[in-house]
Amino acid sequence: MESRQMNMIFEEGKVATSFKTGVITPVPKKGKDLTQTTNYRGITVTSAHGKVYEYVLIEKAGLKNINQSNLQFGFTEGLSPTMAALILSEVYSEINGKDLFFITTLDSQNAFDVVNHQILLDKLYYLGVDIEYWDVIEDMYNGVTSDVKWQGDTSLSFSIDQGVRQGGILFSHLYKQYINELLSEIEAHNMGISIGNTYAGCPSCADDIVLLSNDQNEMQEMLNTVYVYSSDHRFLIHPVKSNTIVKSINERISEKIQQTTKIFTLGDNIMEFKSETTHLGLKRTTSEETKININDRISLARRTLYSLIKTGVHGTNGLNPRTSCKIYQVYVIPRFLYGLETFNLQNK
Length: 348
Hints:
InterPro entries: RT_dom (IPR000477). By secondary structure, this protein is of the alpha+beta class. About 40% of the residues lie in helices and about 20% in strands.
C-alpha cells in the first residue's frame, strides 16, 4: 500500500473495507465435545496491508502502553507473562510464621469477544487520543465483518458488533485499555498485598488477573470491585473457573483455614476454596507447589518429545542428529523450563 493511500485514511477518517474483514478458522479445543460450538477456538486472519496500517496507527496515536498499569505484563514489549507469576512467588516468599496469603485467579468469559465498542471508544477519548486518530479507530470498528472457513468452504459474511478485532495488531493494545481502569482502581484504593513499599496486589497478563491479599475482608472487597467493574463493562467473570486458595508456611494451618474461613462471593456466585488453581499455565497449590509443577514440566516435555519422534527426531534412521538436536532445543526444552524460574527450588 502506498503511503499516499495511508495518509488519505488519516485525513478522511475512513478505513478501507478490506481492513474490516476477516476469515475465522475454528480450531477444536483438546479433549472437548466437538459437537458443541463453544468447544472451538476461532483464529481470525485479516488483511496484511491492514496490519501494516495498524502498526502505523499505534505509533501515530500513541497507543502503545498508554497510561498502562505497572502490573499489566501482557502484550507489552520488554515484559514477559512470567513476571506476573514471579510476583506471586515473591509475595509468597515474604509470608512467615502463621501469616496467611489469599490467592484468587479470575477467568473472564470470552474476554476479547465481548468488549463493548462504545465503552472502549469513550475510554480512548478520555485518555486524550487525538481526535484525528480516534475517528479512524471509530470507523475501523464500524461495519466490521467476518466469515468462517470450514472444510474448504466459506460461509456468508456476518457483522461483528462487539469485541476487539482479533487477527490484527491493534486489538491487544485496545483490550489492555479496556481492562486497565480495573487494575488502577484496585491499586488506587491500596487493596491487596505489597512487598515493602512496592504494590503487588493484582499482577495481570491481559485478561488473566490474579488478586493477592493477606486479609480476608480485603480480598472480598477486591472481588466486589471486580464484580462492579465487570458489570459496568458488560463482561462476565466465570464463577467456576475462578478460584481462591489459601497459602501458609504451615500446610496444616492452610487446610484448617480453608475449612473454617467464610467463603468469598463474586456477586451472587459463591467461590469455594480450592486446593489448587492455575495462573499463566502454572499450578498454585496449598502444598508441594514446586514439586507438582516440576513433575508437570517433565511430563509435558516428555509428551512433546514423543509427539516429535514420528517426524524423525530420534537416534537412528531419522533426521540428521544436528537437526534433531536443534528441534529438541527449540520445541522441547522451552516447554520443560517454562515458569520454573519463578519457583523456589530446594534440594528436597
